[in-house]
Protein: ABC transporter ATP-binding protein
Amino acid sequence: MAEPAIHTEGLVKTYGRNRGLTGLDLRVEPGEVYGFLGPNGAGKSTTIRLLLDLIRPTAGRVRVLGADPRRDGVALRRRIGYLAGDFVVDGRQTARELLTYLGNLRGGVPRARVDALAARLDLDLGRPIRGLSKGNRQKVGVVQAFMHSPELLILDEPTSGLDPFLQHEFLAMVREARAEGRTVFMSSHVMSEVQQTADRVGIVRDGRMVTVARVEELRERAVRKVEVTFAEPVDAAEFAALPGVSEVTVAGTVLRCRLDGRADALVKAAAAHTAVGLLCEEPDLEELFFGYYSREEATRAVA
Structure:
């Protein structure tokens, strides 16, 4: 079995009396896109900084591309593309000057490669950094992460500030990186990004992993809002008894409910009537977190 691209065991990071991570176990396989999700303060950026040796762990073990980030940091960074969540650069340089400088630090990047990426993102390389909007500065950050075709991309909230068209282009770049056999580790609050690109998703809370699942499994287990319009009124009690169905209301011919997990039982029950309309609303990320955290708290209470 190939060595994981990222592997942490029992990772702990404390800040005085506060804990950033409380024993995080993480495994990212080579060539996969891994979505790292969690609300603010969950430990996402702390984890990324530990992977890059920007901060040091209090306890635990970290391996990145088979190497120790502390001992092999210089060589390792040449193999990694990193975009910080708070990408900050010197405003006195032009975008091209900055990217040339960063490329030289990595051993040189062909000018044509930089130009091609800038063109995809509609980035003017001749403008000074200080004159760029937040969105255009983010484009510079994306280019510097991708330009040397790294084995591993570590991206912290990468589409922040990008307009919808450029978000679409960025996601295409992520898919291309995966097709080329490279690994992408991406933290995000945008569920649609993860659903479109990730192979697996890890959800973190309070510095530890809540769940790890393939995207298909995550969507299947998520709580959704469902609205079914029938030709004739139906009995709410018939649907309230179904597995995974809750908060059932009926107004006229419209039934509304929440669905936790698979839709099979609900669909079969609806098929026993004449259904004329169906609306299923995918959960946003906050609802998804709440659902997992609620289950976790319930499990703790029982234990």
Summary: Residues 6-215 form a domain with the Rossmann fold fold (CATH 3.40.50.300). The chain is about 35% helix and 30% strand. The longest helix spans residues 285-302. The first strand starts at residue 6 and ends at 15.
